[in-house]
Amino acid sequence: MRIWIFLAVGLVVLLIVLLIVVLSSKVTIKLDVVLRKNEYKVLAEMKMLFGWITRKYEVPFHLANGGIEYKKETVPVDEGTELGSKEDKETSRRTIRYRDYVRVLLTTKGFKKWARQTMAAVHLMDVSWSTRIALEHAADTAVATGLLHAVKHTIMGWMSYRLIMDELPEIQVVPVFNGPPQISTELCCIAKISCGKAMYAGLVLIVRVLKVKGGVRSWQNTLFKA
After folding, report:
1. Which of 103, 121, 136, 178 could lock onto 197 through a cystine, CB 3.0 to 4.6 A?
2. What does the alpha-carbon distance between residue 133 and residue 21 come to, in Å, rounded to a whole number?
3. How many Cβ atoms from other residues are within 10 Å of residue 174's Cβ?
4. Are 129 and 171 in contact (CB under 8 A)?
5. Are 124 and 164 spatial neighbours (Cβ–Cβ below 8 Å)?
6. Structural contact between residues 73 and 45, judged by C-beta atoms closer than 8 angstroms
């Protein structure tokens, strides 16, 4: 009889240790956003539980019908398969409409407070934001380059106030004086949050949605449309 007690205690201890390991592990998201002429896409890679769970996505999109229309492509994570490969992708078309998400945010009690608390637990690193710009006149290009520098530093300053920036971001604005009018940008970064804090944030969000009448239905309808 005593041996069964020892086995039960050992099993409980093992489960507690596993739970602690899972909650202390990190959720890592590597994000690349590319906005160029005729090329709008998001490349994302998510790793959980020390890399045991890995998913990669390639999401080309365009602006239309009062929102963002995109085609989500799940990229295999087998060795030798590059992010963005056109082979063996699961594809589905979806639409994000601005008005739908504004409505669900309004039906979530204390959403701004929840967002601030969640962002405060996120570590941001390897931030690189590069932009190329060209206008019709060289003087206009130079002025626009300076303005973009100011805007980028303002945005990064706000992010460093809300998030945990582990290192200084790399910001570039490249003026193109001899090319046709254009603007293109590419943003790369890595965000990390512990599984425990991510799960807690998810539970808090669910509770806040439940506190508002019709909140669950609004979220369900919006997510189902997307």
Report:
1. 121
2. 47
3. 12
4. yes
5. yes
6. no
Q: In this structure, are residues 176 and 141 in contact, taking their beta carbons and an 8 Å threshold?
A: yes
Q: Select from 45, 6, 7, 49 the least CA-distant residue to 27.
A: 49
What are the beta bridge partners of residue 71?
Answer: 93
Considering only CA atoms, which of 130, 136, 64 is closest in space to residue 97? 64
- How far apart, in whole angstroms, are the C-alpha atoms of residue 212 and residue 138? 54
Burial class, 189, CB count within 10 angstroms (exposed 0-12 / middle 13-18 / buried 19+): middle
User: What is the rounded distance in angstroms from the CA atom of residue 129 to the CA atom of residue 154?
Assistant: 13
CB atoms within 10 A of CB 3: 7
Residue 16: Cβ within 10 Å count: 10
Tokens of 144: 């626009």
- pLDDT tens, per residue, the chain with 226 residues: 667 676 776 777 777 777 777 777 888 889 898 888 777 888 888 888 777 888 888 878 777 666 677 665 555 555 444 444 444 444 556 666 667 677 777 777 788 888 889 999 999 989 999 999 988 888 888 999 999 999 999 999 898 888 988 888 899 998 988 778 888 999 999 999 988 888 888 888 888 877 777 666 666 666 655 5
**Burial bucket for residue 121 (CB in 10 Å: 0-12, 13-18, 19+):** middle
Per DSSP, 76 falls in state: P
Count of Cβ atoms closer than 10 Å to residue 169 Cβ: 20
Helices within the chain (DSSP H only): 2-24, 98-106, 111-119, 138-162, 195-210, 215-225
